[in-house]
Amino acid sequence: MTTAAEALDDDFKRTMLGCLGSLRAFAVSLSGRHDRADDLVQDTIMKAWAKKTSFEPGTNMKAWLFTILRNEFYSQIRKSGREIQDSDGYYTEQLASHPGQYGALDFSDFKIALEKLPDDQREAIILIGATGFSYEEAAEICGCAIGTIKSRVNRARTRLTELLNIEGDGDYGPDSGALAVTGRPFIN
């Protein structure tokens, strides 16, 4: 003996299966491809079955299914606009990034070295290098000549290079181990 719920499920299935041909034709007209249309119909049926309790018996199931299919089609279109085909892995390779801890450690070392500079040099290099003031503006802020600011910045850069043991461009960015993994130099 079947219960009322089972009878409703059977009726729902029969009505839904009766709409498959129309759904497929609509899906082909939207997507233009038979294989995509089949996937779209399958997704529609799966969503309809999952939400069968929200269907009101006695209403137009075909219209309900067409609405689900149409919404699914446009959702897939929006989603595909954000996706990139990368079967050869080209774009994935470009996503490799260097470990963040090195940057944090380098910045920590820089802060320690900056604190070791004399106050006038630290002030000058922060005004020029960090805040972006021109030499003229920095000289006005510090109440000294432009040449004095230039001299302080130069001495600060030289001292920071010594304190951080920087010998060349190879001392910036990732070490050789990180380069071996990512396969390319650090680009800022």
TrEMBL record:
All residue ranges annotated as the RNA polymerase sigma factor 70 region 4 type domain in the record: 113-160
GO biological process, one term: DNA-templated transcription initiation
Gene Ontology MF term list: DNA binding; sigma factor activity
Keywords: DNA-binding, Sigma factor, Transcription, Transcription regulation
InterPro entries, per database record: RNA_pol_sigma-70-like (IPR039425), RNA_pol_sigma-70_dom (IPR014284), RNA_pol_sigma70_ECF_CS (IPR000838), RNA_pol_sigma70_r2 (IPR007627), RNA_pol_sigma70_r4_t2 (IPR013249), RNA_pol_sigma_r2 (IPR013325), RNA_pol_sigma_r3/r4-like (IPR013324), WH-like_DNA-bd_sf (IPR036388)
Boundaries of every RNA polymerase sigma-70 region domain copy: 22-82
Similarity comment text for this entry: Belongs to the sigma-70 factor family. ECF subfamily.
Protein name (Swiss-Prot/TrEMBL): RNA polymerase sigma factor
Organism in which the protein naturally occurs: Rhizobium setariae
